[in-house]
Amino acid sequence: MTIRFYLHNQTNADGTALICADYRHAGKRWRFSLGLTVEVKHWNAKKERMKPAWRYAEQVNAVLDAKEAAILSAAYSILAEGREPTPDAVKASFQDEPDGMSLWACWDRFAEEHAAGLAAHSAKNYTTARRALERFEMFFGEEIGFQNLGESFFTRFKTFLSAEGKKQNTVTKILKSVRTVLGYAERNGWASLPPGWDSLKAGYRKGEKRTSLTEEELSALFETDYPEKLRRVVDLFIFQADTGLRYSDLSQVEPGSVAGDVLNFRNVKSSKQQSRRLTARAVLILNRYGGTLPAISNQKFNDYIKEAAERAGLTRIVQTGDGARPLFEIVSTHVARHTFATRLLRAGVPLNIVSRMLGHSSITTTAIYDQTGEAEEFNAIDKLLQ
User: Fold this and answer.
1) Which residues have C-beta within 8 Å of that of residue 312, sequence separation ≥ 6?
2) What is the pTM of this model?
3) What DSSP character marks residue 295?
4) Domain range list for the chain
């Protein structure tokens, strides 16, 4: 009997590949993925381990040592029972998940079944979530299975993501993707999950308000002079703040999308057609780029818009879940949509209409944008008394 480790022959675009195992006995084999993605350049094929220079080498090699010991231990236990340690027999001893479905096998099946229906950015979210789980697994040297994905695990996982420098919005997306896959596994009867998994969330803390820009801050941002790369980003931000489009929807704006001052576009997330009346400022921005919008990655957008906001003097101190920070440090593509929603609500647009314009499936999601204060409440009573 032999056990060896190797990298899958399919290398990802970022230079990583899955670690696989190959158990052989009497001319038969059992090949399987360990669910760990590592950098190919740091893999020592001869030693079947990670090179010491890689930052996670110690943790990954410890996992491989433990897996090898577990497989050989299972094989020798089968021998002690007077049976042949065939690949099927050894494999059966590791099927402690319901119906033999591991977390990673379930994840692969979910990705395969939903590949056609997922937008590119959504598919990327699931890949990001899986790799985050793999890094956690490597760092702590422990295997992740359905049986240990309870509330305590996710408390540690969220702490791990924060220690990596992940911002709250990224953590939220990762946890949402994990929760979706776990729900898929439970609905199909492949997982008996511990208590606490279904309350897995990392949204805004209770009572925490979403940041938005005032009309004066929007004007200052738009009217400041910038170099070309920052001007393009500012125009995209202002267009979002005036239309409420998601960042992924900006690519749907084409010269033929506008009739008069009405924009018609396909909502990438829902695949539904929507229309939006454009402000004079939004029309000006479209005309500046010939009826379309500049293309820039989301990450660069969020980096450049902070630089632009600082130039525009957006230094107002705001309270966030991480404490008090100047506004320019937290401005992002999401803040543009928050600003759009807040402006509508302050203008008296009903919450259900704002929800529909934002493409929210639940009005509860939209309600977190409602930041009306005492002045708005007094105005509402005044209208009632007129």
Assistant:
1) 217, 220, 221, 224, 328
2) 0.53
3) -
4) 2-94, 103-199, 215-385
